[in-house]
Amino acid sequence: MNVMRQTDDTTATAEIKIAAKGVQVYYGDNHAIKDVDVDIADRTVTAFIGPSGCGKSTFLRCLNRMNDTIDICRVEGKITLDGEDIYDKRVDPVQLRAKVGMVFQKPNPFPKSIYDNVAYGPRIHGLARSKAELDEIVEKSLRRAALWGEVKDRLNAPGTGLSGGQQQRLCIARAVATSPEVLLMDEPCSALDPIATAQVEELIDELRSRFAVVIVTHSMQQAARVSRKTAFFHLGNLVEFGETGQIFTNPRDPRTESYITGRIG
Ligand SMILES: Nc1ncnc2c1ncn2[C@@H]1O[C@H](COP(=O)(O)OP(=O)(O)O)[C@@H](O)[C@H]1O
Ligand SMILES: [Mg+2]
After folding, report:
1. Residue identifier of the C-alpha nearest atom 25 of ligand 1
2. What is the DSSP string of the chain?
3. Fewer CB atoms inside 10 Å of the end CB: C or N, the chain?
4. What confidence score (pLDDT) does residue 4 get?
5. Measured from the CB, is residue 58 less than 6 Å from ligand 1?
């Protein structure tokens, strides 16, 4: 695999897709995210790294308002998608999540057929006018998730019957089926074996040509392989954010250096 493949195309100046400013998150009295500013570039993979419990998942969930579903969670600050405030009262979080899709740590296909897993979002959002159009979206999404060849002859089989790596690619197909603009991935490979991990990493590299991808990862090797930008979180603070190559070879903050050299975390 082409290590650090994203760092060589520095001539591309990506547009800002999501801008977060002064973000604070509280779970009751627990101040989990402390005044975080970050810009997520379009058509770029951004990695969030840092020790367990530092707030990576919490911050990721702010970006598509998944924290709204947690009663004790309170989010402050401003987050915009293409300049529009995603926490504005007029924004429907369900619509937002079609635009800002999410893939979780553990593959979680619905207990439905492969076809129906992928068709789920397009159906609830009314994206297809006919069965033929829905078929087309399902095929395109499965192709985009590099799964079509493996499942095209058994679209009616249950999604839960696939291997772990296939299930995760099915979840990616389900997320891309609503034509999102941003894909959030929370440790998408941590339940996968090395071969399935490599396939998902290859896929992420393809997805970035169309989407802004944000990936939380435990693995610094993975961050180095797949991302162009890296954000290092520590105790709820965004300590350092920059080009992945710089973060790993020339960190500016001693906390980042301690983490990447294995002294913390
Ligand atoms: N659903 C939740 N309810 C209450 N506290 C939570 C919840 N999720 C996370 N936290 C707390 O927020 C902090 C950050 O956690 P998390 O975002 O899961 O970190 P990470 O993903 O970096 O491991 C931790 O103190 C954790 O206990
Ligand atoms: Mg997490």
Report:
1. 53
2. --TTGGGG-TT--PPEEEEEEEEEEEETTEEEEEEEEEEEETTSEEEEE-STTSSHHHHHHHTTTGGGGSTTEEEEEEEEETTEETTSTT--HHHHHHHEEEE-SS----SSBHHHHHHHHHHHTT--SSHHHHHHHHHHHHHHTT-HHHHTT-TTSBGGGS-HHHHHHHHHHHHHTT--SEEEEESTTTTS-HHHHHHHHHHHHHHTTTSEEEEE-S-HHHHHHH-SEEEEEETTEEEEEEEHHHHHHS-SSHHHHHHHTTS--
3. N
4. 46
5. yes
- In this predicted structure, what is the pLDDT of residue 106? 92
Give 221-245 pLDDT, tens digit per residue. 999 999 999 999 999 999 999 999 9
Confidence of residue 61 (pLDDT cuts 50, 70, 90): very high
The pLDDT of residue 32: 98
Residue located nearest, by CA, to atom 14 of ligand 1: 55
Instruction: Report the separation in Å between the CA atom of 53 and the middle of ligand 2, taken as the mean of its atom positions.
Output: 7
pLDDT given at position 223: 96
Least distant ligand from the CA of 50: 1
Q: Which atom of ligand 1 is nearest to the CA of 216?
A: 21
What pLDDT, on the 0 to 100 scale, is given for residue 8? 45
CATH 3.30.420.360 fits 15-108+182-260, yes or no: no
In the chain, what are the domain boundaries?
15-108+182-260
